[in-house]
């Protein structure tokens, strides 16, 4: 795992952070640093607004954790072709163990997708920046968006904590992104068809980038 360019945090340190959370809380939302299952599912629902194909389609899930998104998707899309990626080996081991019987699903230890899919999504990977400076972390986000774009034929979706969070509740180890900047960036670099979702009651936002075919 490499070092974030110009930053003070390596992907190995982030892997250790999430591995520790998994060890303390198990394969639960708290094990991937979410407050609870309800908010996790609410975020998944926003990401899934990207999907506009009936029947079978393929999804890359970057930062898949223990595979919670696959559990959320399977009842709605039983023919989905899913591949999850994570930088924490413990997460991948947990995901593989609990989804051994899942047809059309696989989990890979990696920091970027290794295949082209119809869609790519990521939830929560831009939140924990530890001691990484703001400018270096933003560069990391933008490079990751470029990877999501390269690996998606129909579009990609992601979420971030928002700069519109309550100041007294903001933590120095978290990154709070500017939704207007990222909306404009995605419009200028990836697609004219971009949706900004910032109305679902959490201290984050979701961006949906749909590609013209």
TrEMBL record:
Pfam families: Methyltransf_12
A GO biological-process term: methylation
Transmembrane segments: none
Gene3D superfamilies: Vaccinia Virus protein VP39
Keyword Ribonucleoprotein found: no
InterPro entries documented for this protein: Methyltransf_12, SAM-dependent_MTases_sf
Methyltransferase type domain boundaries: 61-106
Record flagged with keyword Transferase: yes
UniProt keyword terms in alphabetical order: Methyltransferase, Transferase
GO molecular function terms listed in the Swiss-Prot or TrEMBL record: methyltransferase activity
Protein name as it appears in the record: Class I SAM-dependent methyltransferase
Native source organism of the sequence: Candidatus Methylospira mobilis
């Amino acid at each position: 795992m490499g070092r974030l360019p110009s930053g003070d945090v390596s992907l190995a340190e982030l892997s250790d952070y999430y591995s520790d959370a998994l060890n303390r809380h198990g394969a639960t939302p708290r094990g991937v640093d979410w407050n609870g299952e309800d908010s996790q599912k609410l975020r998944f629902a926003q990401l899934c607004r990207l999907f506009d194909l009936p029947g079978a389609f393929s999804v890359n899930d970057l930062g898949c954790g223990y595979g919670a998104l696959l559990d959320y998707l399977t009842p709605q899309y039983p023919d989905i072709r899913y591949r999850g990626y994570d930088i924490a080996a413990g997460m991948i081991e947990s995901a593989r163990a609990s989804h051994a019987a899942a047809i059309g699903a696989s989990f890979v230890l990696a920091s970027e997708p290794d295949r082209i899919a119809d869609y790519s999504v990521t939830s929560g990977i831009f939140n924990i920046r530890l001691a990484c400076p703001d400018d270096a972390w933003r560069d990391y986000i933008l490079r990751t968006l470029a990877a999501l774009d390269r690996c998606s034929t129909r579009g990609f979706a992601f979420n971030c904590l928002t700069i519109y969070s309550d100041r007294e509740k903001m933590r120095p180890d978290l990154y709070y992104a500017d939704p207007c900047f990222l909306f404009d960036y995605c419009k200028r670099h990836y697609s004219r068809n971009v949706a900004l979702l910032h109305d679902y009651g959490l201290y984050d936002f979701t961006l949906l980038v749909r590609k013209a075919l």
